Amino acid sequence: MAKNLTNTKVNAKNDLTEGPIFSKLIGFAIPVILGNLCFQLYNVVDSVVVGNYVGTDALAAVGAVFPIMMLFNALFMGVSMGAQIVISQTFGAKDEQGLRTVTNTAITLAIIIGAAITLIGTPLARPMLRLIGTPANIIGDSSVYLMIIFAGTLGNVFYNLGSGALRGMGDSRWPLVAMLVSSVTNIVLDLVFVIYFKMGVAGVAWATSISHFLSGMVPLWRIQSGAYPVHLYLKDMMHPDGRAASRIFKLGLPSSIQNAAMSLGSVVIQSFANSFGSNFIAANTIIMKADGFAIMPMMGLGMASTSFVGQNIGAGKVDRAKKGVHAGQLSAIVVAAVVGTLLYFLGEYIMRAFGADGQVLMMGVSGIRFLAFCYVFVGLDQVTGGAMRGAGAAIAPAITSISANLFRIPLAYFLGAGPLRSEIKQILQSKSADLTAKANELFATGAYEKIEDAERSAAAILAAPDHFMYMFYAMGISMFVGALLIYLYFKFGKWHEKSVVKIKDE
Fold it and tell me: Measured between alpha carbons, how far is 448 from 291 in angstroms, rounded to an integer?
């Protein structure tokens, strides 16, 4: 028989199996949302500093690496989700020994994964950027940024796994503290490295990596503080439990595959975006920063749903878990309406804050205002998918998300990138005065080794205004498809029978 947690070992604030559903869910979600917003602050501060103190090309260089970063991050983010689910169900079932075993095993997995990503990703940074067609004028800065980020991966992995463990035990407050400390550090180091030491893109990357390390240390220290019914032990970490690791991977692998598929899709989409030239890349980079902030409240509600449903499924309270999902969905709709309204009316100011003007400004404002109407789908997808993962049904949200993203790729190509490339070809063949003038202007900057490269970039800039919105249309449609598919599974699937923690049988 598993040793049960006593009431004295469990903080009532962290126990999501008792008390008012809405207040428990929202109380858990608010620190997660604030932490996620702080995480986005990393990237936004990087972009603001680069856009205003280094230049538009440097801003595009930072944005171009994001899909590759997310592809590698997919592995440890999935494992983090798997650990959070198993820990939440074990915590809900009040199994003290199981909690110790899975927590120590999760940290061991973090060390292995972080080291592997650093060793594999760092030397492959430039080849991967070439593979997705990163423009010649930004690939140098992109490579430097990506290599430094890969070198600091371990701190980011520790933060994700450690925070996942804390959230599984019902504590969303200390992950927020970790991110607040890290974000302040990131802002200070950005300003020092870029403005004072003139380190450019490399300074931004070092500031981010150092901040990641700090954010990773805080959750590990907190676990050791005695505030929870679990500690990290070197003996346990040196001998990870195979069964616990299997459970983590069972629930985390679908999320890893989902994140990897989404990242691969983003890499493909980025290759399409690169066809539109550096102006669109810069505009899209700013939009994705704004989008990152916009989806954070919905992601926070999704994470809260994961822990809430996980603990209640572990405790055998299926009806309470269902009520929690409904509460989360309603909250997501309200939040999405507020976020969309703000983005629609503040879109131009957001773009200008990043130093955008001219064609970059026009593209950015148009894209933001369209996406403002799509966030209700993101909210429903995040909450419902997070709840399904918490119940142990991790495969369903992975399938629905992958399907939606696979649908986005052909849409983006046939509606946007394909017609654009045809027009670029026609412009290059025309040898028009506009093309020659723009190509000479670009070539004079010294960013291009050959006039042919400048001509192609010039043709992309001239053709982009007629086609770029179709890239955002494809994104919005895929959001709707993903939300619809996961809702249908929640409504008709057997997700409440997927628990991986059955203490009474062990």
Answer: 31
Yes or no: say if 176 and 35 are a contact pair by the CB < 8 Å rule. yes
CA–chain centroid gap for 482, Å, is 16
| Residues 357-376, mean pLDDT to the nearest whole number | 91
CB atoms within 10 A of CB 3: 12
Across 432-471, b (16+ Cβ under 10 Å) vs e yields eeebeebbeebbeeebbeeeebbbbbbbbbbbbeebbebb
Q: How far apart are CA 26 and CA 361, in angstroms?
A: 36
Is residue 505 very low, low, confident or very high in pLDDT (cuts 50, 70, 90)? Answer: very low
**Tens digit of pLDDT for each residue in 301-311?**
999 999 999 99
Lowest-confidence region among 48-52, 214-218, 373-377: 48-52
The per-residue pLDDT for 378 is: 94
Q: Average pLDDT in the 399-416 region?
A: 90
CB 267 within 8 A of CB 327: no
Please name the residues in contact with 353: beta carbons below 8 A apart, sequence gap of 6 or more. 48
Rounded to two decimals, what is the model's pTM?
A: 0.78
DSSP string, 73-86: HHHHHHHHHHHHHH
Q: Are 218 and 178 in contact (CB under 8 A)?
A: yes
3-state secondary structure of 482: helix
3-class secondary structure per residue, 93-158: CCEHHHHHHHHHHHHHHHHHHHHHHHHHHCCCHHHHHHHCCCCCCCHHHHHHHHHHHHHCHHHHHH
Lowest-confidence segment of 43-57, 161-175, 409-423 by average pLDDT: 43-57
Ranges of beta strands (E only) in 386-457 are: none
Please write the tens of the pLDDT for every residue from 476-487: 999 999 999 999
Q: Which two tokens stand for residue 366?
A: 């148009």
Q: Are 298 and 330 in contact (CB under 8 A)?
A: no
Which residues have C-beta within 8 Å of that of residue 230, sequence separation ≥ 6?
Answer: 96, 99, 100, 103, 169, 223
